[in-house]
Design goal:
By secondary structure, the chain is of the alpha+beta class. Helix content is 28%, strand content 31%.
Length: 134
């Protein structure tokens, strides 16, 4: 039986497909999978544009989740082009923190082989907006 990290890894790998969309846009080099609190998996890929208006894979996956009526995340996995996982960028961390008052508890995978993970609050201590949820 697959563990949750393996399920997320396989879901991200299934949509990862680095490609050129147009002379201005590349997509799919990085893929992400998130596990919502309800147990559903949502995926997304990065979209890189010449004008810097693209979207990270994690935010794309979160947009997919929000589109389907959810806003609470349990786990996040970002799959890099080399097959390794990595933490989300600052913009993605900020987006996650703004989703829910308990977003600091989101578990983020840092190393697939060892299953090393951290909570979002460890990557983003003393977040500026916490009091607005109270």
């Amino acid at each position: 039986m697959q563990d949750q990290w393996e399920q997320l890894y396989e879901a991200a790998k299934a949509v990862q497909n680095g490609r050129t969309v147009s002379p201005f846009i590349e997509a799919g080099g990085v893929a992400a999978a998130i596990l919502s609190k309800s147990g559903k998996i949502y995926v997304g890929v990065c979209i890189d544009t010449a004008c810097s208006m693209g979207m990270c894979a994690e935010r794309n996956a979160m947009a997919n989740m929000i589109t389907h009526g959810e806003s609470q995340i349990d786990k996040v996995l970002a799959l890099m082009p080399n097959g390794k996982v990595g933490p989300p960028c600052g913009a993605c961390r900020e987006f996650m923190m703004q989703l829910d008052k308990n977003s600091g508890d989101i578990e983020i995978l840092l190393d697939y082989d060892t299953r090393k993970s951290v909570r979002l609050s460890e990557l983003f201590p003393d977040w500026w907006g916490a009091e607005r949820f109270q």
